[in-house]
């Protein structure tokens, strides 16, 4: 089986193949009939142990547009609440004939465990694990940046070489930030993380990026500014920054957005907390790509499912090699 566990596993060729395939899938989405017969007869299981709006819905839409059968599993309301283990849940899915399992889990490493355990034969796609990685989010973000910064028609085959991307906020708890840092570095972009000192991960100096504590200094040099939510649910209450202080130093409002170059975009993976990391004025502006990112998520996830489930004999060789 082939898997997508981590953006750090992807070579530049893997990433460009996925982004170029997503570009083809987006063209299908522009047609009156959006469906392809490619995965007819295959079964995709969405296995969600943590809440999700965008990721779960877009994987479902992606699988359906490729004509796969989709089974949605949410831990809430399942036998997981009666104490059933990941292994027994996985064996149940295997018995249902799953060809791909898209898993979101609160524990970092759960998708890797599923992919390497031998419990199931299916392809495994990480849809976000703890504070570790969210590789399809990074791919859809790169797809969005490539379209906006390089140009839609020029998108295929181009990458983000030399672009300056700033990621702002609760980096410590953000699987989105970690996946983006790895993928953007692989694609030749330059990443700067901006966060309060208490929300910078230990060992960040090993990451292929810069760190700054001064948002106003970095904004004028950014091609894209990605705002992150403060993940209170993963935080000890003692670490909570006050909303007012956080917004004053790390929030993006209209005045700060005006410091960005004219071509620069504002990104947010969602869910957004308006008034905390981003004002309504910025969230609703033409420069904010949050809704576009969601639409691009469907094309990107179609590309991932298509490549993993036999759309190409040469799909994701490096991801396969690391998890076999
Ligand atoms: N960006 C993202 O992963 O959103 P959801 O948690 O709603 O899936």
Automatic annotation (TrEMBL):
The keyword DNA damage does not apply. SUPFAM superfamilies: Aspartate/ornithine carbamoyltransferase. Its EC number is 2.1.3.2. It catalyses: carbamoyl phosphate + L-aspartate = N-carbamoyl-L-aspartate + phosphate + H(+). L-aspartate binds at residues 82, 175, 229. Gene3D superfamilies: Aspartate/ornithine carbamoyltransferase (3.40.50.1370). Keywords: Pyrimidine biosynthesis, Transferase. Residues 162-308 form the Aspartate/ornithine carbamoyltransferase Asp/Orn-binding domain. It is an enzyme of class 2 (transferase). It comes from the Bacteria. PROSITE patterns: CARBAMOYLTRANSFERASE. Pfam families: OTCace (PF00185), OTCace_N (PF02729). GO terms for molecular function: aspartate carbamoyltransferase activity. Carbamoyl phosphate binds at residues 54-55, 104, 134, 137, 270-271. Catalyzes the condensation of carbamoyl phosphate and aspartate to form carbamoyl aspartate and inorganic phosphate, the committed step in the de novo pyrimidine nucleotide biosynthesis pathway. Heterododecamer (2C3:3R2) of six catalytic PyrB chains organized as two trimers (C3), and six regulatory PyrI chains organized as three dimers (R2). PANTHER family: ASPARTATE CARBAMOYLTRANSFERASE, ORNITHINE CARBAMOYLTRANSFERASE, MITOCHONDRIAL. This is Aspartate carbamoyltransferase.
């Amino acid at each position: 089986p082939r898997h997508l566990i981590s953006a750090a596993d992807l070579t530049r060729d893997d990433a460009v193949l996925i982004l170029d395939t997503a570009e083809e899938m987006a063209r299908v989405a522009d047609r009156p009939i959006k469906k392809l017969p490619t995965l007819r007869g295959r079964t995709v299981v969405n296995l969600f142990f943590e809440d999700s709006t965008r990721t779960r819905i877009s994987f479902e839409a992606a699988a359906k547009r490729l004509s796969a059968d989709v089974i949605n599993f949410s831990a809430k309301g399942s036998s997981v609440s009666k104490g059933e283990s990941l292994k027994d849940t996985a064996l149940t899915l295997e018995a249902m004939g799953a060809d791909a399992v898209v898993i979101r889990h609160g524990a970092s490493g759960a998708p890797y465990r599923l992919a390497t355990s031998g419990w199931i034969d299916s392809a495994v796609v990480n849809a976000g694990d703890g504070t570790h990685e969210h590789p399809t989010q990074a791919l859809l973000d790169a797809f969005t940046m490539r379209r906006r910064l390089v140009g839609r028609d020029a998108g295929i085959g181009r990458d983000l070489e030399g672009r300056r991307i700033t990621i702002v906020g609760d980096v410590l708890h953000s699987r989105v930030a970690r996946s983006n840092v790895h993928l953007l570095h692989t694609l030749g972009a330059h990443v700067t993380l901006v966060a309060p000192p208490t929300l910078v991960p230990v060992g960040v100096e090993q990451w292929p990026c810069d760190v700054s504590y001064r948002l106003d200094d970095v904004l004028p040099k950014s091609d894209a500014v990605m705002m992150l939510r403060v993940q209170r649910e993963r935080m000890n209450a003692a670490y909570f920054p006050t909303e007012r202080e956080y917004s004053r130093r790390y929030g993006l409002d209209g005045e700060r957005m005006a410091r960005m170059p004219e071509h620069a975009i504002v990104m947010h993976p969602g869910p957004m907390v308006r008034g905390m990391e981003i004002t309504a004025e910025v969230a609703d502006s033409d420069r904010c790509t949050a809704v576009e990112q969601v639409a691009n998520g469907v094309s990107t996830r179609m590309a991932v499912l298509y490549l993993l489930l036999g759309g190409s004999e040469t799909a994701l060789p490096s991801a396969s090699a690391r998890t076999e």
